[in-house]
Amino acid sequence: MAFRSCQILGRPVIAPINLTKTPSRNCYFSVQNCSLSSSQSHKQLVSEVKDKLEKEHSSLPIGKNGRDDEDMILWFLKDRRFSVEEAVAKLTKAIKWRQEFGVSKLTEESVKSVAETGKAYVHDFLDVCNRPVLVVVPSKHLPDVHPPVENERLCVFLVEKALAKLPAGKEDILGVFDLRDFATENADLKYLTFVFNVFYYYYPRRLGEVLFVDAPFVFKPIWQLVKPLLKSYTSLVRFCSMDTVRKEYFTEETVPANFRD
């Protein structure tokens, strides 16, 4: 296995170069902060965050995805470059949002009506980098058909479902937007703002790459409006063809049905 250095979101990462297997898709894994390589240092910082949350935000829930969830705390510490104060602030906001939005109450049944449109789903298989895959089909999204809150619930439910499929040692998911047949009536900037705010504030750095597949000409002006909404995620976007998706991200057996010949 060979390695090369590169940049993702302004941070150094090391990318393994696959010399033996096809498709030869580079699968990145991030080095969040090389100056804090000691697990003991991480544990101390996690402990500091837990203590501050207990003292300053004792009303927040405990347990999984709560103020004492050490895995969640460590993830937000990494996102905030191991700043305890910044991690506490962002984590507090995220936990409160989870409560208010009712994330723990989302079920297949609660999002069934909007999920049946096929506008988005979690793929059954991982990609060649062993990432869960969230497929979005914007041509099936009609803003006025379902109330905005139903679309928002589907988004969060699918993000949670994708993250639940993360293999051990993996940190992020692949987002695939199938833009074939996209038309102006499918454009929904308010919903897109919600989607990317969810990833930016509440699931930071969980989106490893975003593919815009076979974008039509009418998508170009929409993209110019969307780019500012993506914030740092802009650097993760790749415009590509259906053929690229098939050959670089999946095997013949695992490619989503949308992208089969």
UniProtKB/TrEMBL annotation:
SMART domains per UniProt: SEC14
GO BP terms, alphabetized: cellular response to phosphate starvation
Pfam family, one: CRAL_TRIO
An example Gene Ontology molecular-function term: phosphatidylinositol transfer activity
Every CRAL-TRIO domain range: 110-261
A GO CC term attached to the entry: chloroplast stroma
Record-linked PANTHER family: SEC14P-LIKE PHOSPHATIDYLINOSITOL TRANSFER FAMILY PROTEIN
Name recorded for this polypeptide: CRAL-TRIO domain-containing protein
Taxonomic source organism: Manihot esculenta
Taxonomic lineage of the native organism: Eukaryota, Viridiplantae, Streptophyta, Embryophyta, Tracheophyta
